[in-house]
Amino acid sequence: MAKIRQLDQVLINKIAAGEVVERPANVVKELVENSIDAQAKNIDIIIKEGGLTLIEVKDDGIGMDYDDAKLCFSTHATSKIADYQDLFNISTLGFRGEAIPSIASVSDFVLQTSDGSEHTFVHYHYGKLADIKKIERTRGTTISVANLFTNVPARLKFVKSVNVEYAHILQYIERLALTKPEISFSLTNNDRQVFLTTGNGNLLEIVANMYGINVARSMIEVAFGDEEFAIGGYTSTLDVNRANKNNIITLVNGRVVKNRIAIEAVDDAYRKYLFEKRYPIAVINIRVDPYLVDVNVHPAKLEVKFSKEDKLREIIFNGITEALKKMDITYQARNVDTKIPKTPLTIPANEQLELKLDFEPRKNDQLLGEPKKEYAVVAPEPQPLPAAAPEGPEVEIPEAQPVIKDVQILPAEPVASTVKARPIKRHLDVQGQVLGTYIVAQDEGGMYLIDQHAAKERINYEYFLERYANKNMAMMDMLVPLTFELPASDFVIVSDNLDKFAKIGIHFEEFSNRTFVVRSLPAWMKNTDHHVFIEEMIVQLLDNQSIDVLKLQDHAVATLACKASLKANTYLNHDGMSHLVNDLMRCDNPYVCPHGRPVIIYYTQYELEKLFKRVV
């Protein structure tokens, strides 16, 4: 008995829908792109319940006659390409002829269209023709997609919340509007208009629509290229940046795509200016001969492949670099007095001995006019520290809890170590200091070189880590509230997850249709960079639909420990060095700093003797 059978057309279309239509936003994408290909100048999108109940797209394009309206429901029926060679010269957004039959197979689908002379109505009910007739209407097309995925319950299980689906649709329309500023787009969600562009061709106006007028004012216009690539758009000044690369938007021949080459080139141009893990806002529009780009490499046409990727990377990097050099890209603090205040260094009482200095430390390890000295250190492979038994039981020293009321948030300062409550793992006899940076110590087995900055970093890290592990949820008021202005699509997702932030003491207030305000913070965040920390939480939520506070805290603690640590060329007396080494040897992990660099390098007596040829 034959095992292979021919599938019926309805099932074939449902299988195709699995590739083309993963969520409501895919339906909006396919229908709106068809409207653009039909030369529409005004496109209205109406959705309800995140697109699950209703998606309606109206346009004033060229429309279809009766025969085309009937044929467009057939698989791979398209007006965009005719033969194999056309696949390598695609200038339209759609070309496969899969979208309409696939969408019609998983929805209640109604098409109304007119080319100006013939007016047609077609109704498909979950893949089966229900009605087709002639009607009266104006030129253009209206498509209504109702009750999406109702006939495929398994697909509904993978659909997110209504607000998440709505946010995906809004984000797509925002980005599509960037590719076609000459088209007026309107998005209405649950009977409320949430997005509108004028279609006047002003790209910067759409940037303002997405990110706000302040961001738009800070954008730099760019235009560069060669005989093959023409690149234009906008990129931000340094004071306008975000915590991820999602706001580096790449457009190729009017198509919204994620192009890794272009995104990395923009990021590389900014690396010398921005802090680690901070990225610009950029809209990069790449125009290229269709023969040099392949858009047929992704089912949803979200990626493209260039035949000359290395050349494209170089053009974008050089173009953005030159644009930044020509502009005043400094942070917007030009009216602030930049003189360094002459305030005394404040050191906690229980840390005076550790940081007491023999003399005023030099700011540099050389005098003005002296040639800079370079040092090279050659050492054998570092060996692990020998094991030693702990000495005595662990003693807990209670810490006084401050009363928090109207706290002014100040930059982090050096903190006293709480590792003193732990026993010393190994006693080291401090001998001296080298180059104001490395402490030399010994025991009966050999010699130790200790990086004093990395050592203090490890001590601070374990101190802060212990404090963060036991969160103090008492609230402290901000003198100046924090503001977070987001694209409307991101704002919707954050609004839908405010409870996740509230659980850890961060309470967002909606200030506008894309701005949150935070007026108070939990005490456990006192020594963090509050704005960056919360922004990274938002990025986590947008990327993963969850917030990993422990991961963020570990990064914040490591950064805070570094800022509160001793710097190089800080000269310590013997007591200061001994206290620092003893505190280090009380740490759970004294061997590496929070960033993974070595703290201690150990030389056995035998290794030292080999260096001096005392043994062979």
Task: Provide an overview of this structure.
With 616 residues, the protein is of the alpha+beta class. It has three domains: 9-196, Heat Shock Protein 90 (2-Layer Sandwich); 203-326, 2-Layer Sandwich (Ribosomal Protein S5, domain 2); 352-362 and 377-382 and 404-616, 2-Layer Sandwich (Ribosomal Protein S8, Chain: A, domain 1), CATH 3.30.1370.100. 30% of the residues lie in helices and 22% in strands. The chain contains 18 helices and 24 strands. The strands form six sheets. Strands 5-4-3-6-2-1-7-8 form an eight-stranded mixed β-sheet. A five-stranded mixed β-sheet has the order 9-10-15-12-13, with helices on both faces. The longest helix is centred in the N-terminal third of the chain and has 18 residues, at 162-179. The termini are far apart.
Quaternary state of this entry equals: single chain
Mean pLDDT: 74
Strand content: 15-25%
Structural class designation: alpha+beta
The count of helical stretches stands at: 18
CATH topology of the largest domain: Ribosomal Protein S8, Chain: A, domain 1
**CATH architecture annotation name of the largest domain:** 2-Layer Sandwich
- Across the major sheet, the strand order is 5-4-3-6-2-1-7-8
> Outline, from the CA principal axes?
elongated
Distance between the termini: 83 Å
User: Can you tell me the residue ranges where pLDDT is under 50 for at least 5 consecutive residues?
Assistant: 80-92, 296-301, 330-417
